[in-house]
Amino acid sequence: MPKRKRESSLTQIEKRIKEGRGQGYLHDYIPWLLIQDVPSSGRATRIRGWKTNRIHHVHSDLERSYYYILEWSDIVTDIREQFPLLPIEETLSIAEELNIKHPTDPKSTQPIVITTDFMISVGNREIARTIKPSSQLDSHRVIEKFEIERRYWAKRNIDWGIVTEVDIPKILIQNIEWVHKERHNEDVHHLGPYIVSGIEKIVLENLSDAHTSLASATSIADDKLGLEPGTSLAMVRHFIAAKRWKVNMSKPILPSQPLDEIIIENEQLRNSAMGG
Question: Domains of the chain by range and CATH?
Fold first, then answer.
């Protein structure tokens, strides 16, 4: 029976490798573990990536928050989640050297492929990061698993580290999450450049009054241009997500409040909007 279970475990690993799991870059990468493969701690989420134009599978709230940081960063060029530490024989050997138990499937009790939560490309450099709540860092078993992971990446001269909620700036995450899905706003093509520029100019003109809220400024644009309510606000979210507008992301962006400290890449537009 144990031999049969072992063969079943190896068959599953071989099947995933043949499927391309843990292989490729950008749009072609397939995570080793998809959301449907494992129970999640928190809200498992599928997110279409800006950088990769594929669906990312994140298995917890904390993973999602860190993903948004990577997505927003200008120096990160690729994000590969649930990256497998293969071949499994190597991590089994590391566990044996450390005289600790290798992670196993709770049902079959057979060894499983260890994954690192994020493999990150920064130019030609690769960085590995594991995500874990700080409350779990005092767990002896968690530390044992981390040591297997650390040694695996050390052999490859890959920078490996642990990220906790302490490292996550909450306001930045809230702002990125608010704008994220509008990065590829279909209205940009549907409305055309003339209307999009009109929205931008009208909203900026109204935001030049420090007492005008973002909701009011975008509502005025909708009315003037005969657009469906909410269209201009969604477009502002697109401008921020695409970094066409640079704003202070460390301050909460609230529609009920003015949006200040806006830097517009198109200086001609900015001067026109501000009366220059």
Answer: 2-168 (3.40.1350.10), 173-273 (1.10.10.10)
